[in-house]
TrEMBL record:
The lineage of its organism: Eukaryota, Fungi, Dikarya, Ascomycota, Pezizomycotina. Residues 294-320 are annotated as: Disordered. PANTHER family: INTEGRAL MEMBRANE PROTEIN, YALI0C10208P. The chain crosses the membrane at residues 36-55, 62-87, 93-117, 138-162, 174-198, 218-236, 256-276. Keywords: Membrane, Transmembrane, Transmembrane helix. This is Uncharacterized protein.
């Protein structure tokens, strides 16, 4: 064997993994029954969120995060179906690659939703700061870098199955670690944004949006963010740990840890956001970004009543 390569079965590429990974190689028992239960749960959340999105949109209440939560649930259904296929076709490395990509990429949808919610709270609590062009540029850069991290994640996972060169694998491993570390920082981002919004002196221009107080929204988002941090922290910790042989996995590579720290916590996030009706709590009027306010056009900020332009003019004349 030439230097700079590692021993792998000769039938590749793609080559089967020689080190342990999250959840290990799925088997008919216990993976398929467990995956079937999770598929059922994700189907329920997908149907619920898509139904809410379409119903609210028909009423003029457009709330994209509901569709994103539905899309995330659909992505997880595909992830679990791939694991079932992999469980019955152990030698199909392509299924292993696809399953690994979806396990790591799907949850990014929820991270983006959390950042969006934090941005709305910041804009409502501190309008001058939240609507500032530099802050908007910051969020655009964060979203763009999420796309870059996702592209690196997918590319490097694929590379790890298609090369035997140790140098290439070593570089890919460290770039992949850097990408997932950035995603962990992104997962944490809503927490300092919320702290900033509430730590600053209360703005006289403070607004609210949707239903419920800003504090209740912040508490809900904090809970969802902490769950996501636990999920991503588990993945980052596993990836940054020294690799173990496939036949001698660490506890974090076990099936129990995989299903608890990934899918079970994701179901908890979906339950939290769907059950506490984020489609009402975090809804903002259409065109808010252009107007730089969450107050609906024609709505009085002081008492919430709606006036026509003529009624407002009459009111001003009476005050004079």
């Amino acid at each position: 064997m030439s230097s700079g390569t590692i021993p792998r079965p000769p039938e590749g590429p793609p080559y089967p993994p020689q080190t342990a990974g999250l959840g290990g190689v799925p088997t008919v028992i216990p993976d398929i029954p467990i995956d079937a239960v999770f598929i059922f749960l994700y189907v329920c959340f997908a149907a619920t969120n898509f139904t809410l999105f379409n119903y609210n949109r028909s009423k003029g209440h457009f709330f994209l995060p509901s569709a994103l939560l539905g899309g995330f649930s659909m992505a997880r259904i595909l992830t679990l179906c791939l694991r079932i296929g992999w469980a019955t076709h152990h030698h199909n490395v392509s299924l292993a690659i696809a399953a690994g990509i979806f396990v790591n990429a799907g949850i990014l949808i929820v991270y983006i939703i959390n950042i969006l919610f934090a941005q709305r709270i910041l804009r409502a609590k501190q309008p001058k700061l939240g609507w500032h062009p530099l802050v908007k540029t910051f969020f655009v850069a964060v979203y763009a870098l999420i796309g870059v991290a996702l592209a690196l994640l997918i590319t490097l996972i694929v590379i790890s199955y298609y090369t035997l060169n140790l140098a290439t694998l070593h570089v890919s491993e460290w770039v992949l670690r850097s990408a997932v570390l950035y995603l962990l920082i992104v997962t944490l981002l809503p927490l300092p944004l919320l702290a900033l919004a509430f730590a600053m002196p209360r703005s006289p221009l403070e607004e609210n949006f949707g239903t419920g107080s800003l504090k209740s929204k912040a508490l809900l988002l904090t809970a969802g963010t902490l769950i996501c941090v636990t999920i991503d922290g588990f993945k980052v910790g596993a990836l940054w740990s020294p690799p173990r042989p496939a036949d001698d996995p660490a506890w974090y590579d076990s099936k129990a840890a995989f299903y608890v720290f990934v899918f079970s916590l994701e179901i908890l996030v979906l339950t939290l956001y769907t059950g506490f009706r984020v489609h009402r709590r975090f809804w903002v009027p259409n065109g808010s970004s252009k107007r730089r306010t969450y107050i609906e056009p024609g709505k009085s900020e002081s008492d919430g009543r709606t006036y026509s332009q003529d009624e407002e003019n009459i009111s001003h004349d009476q005050e004079k």
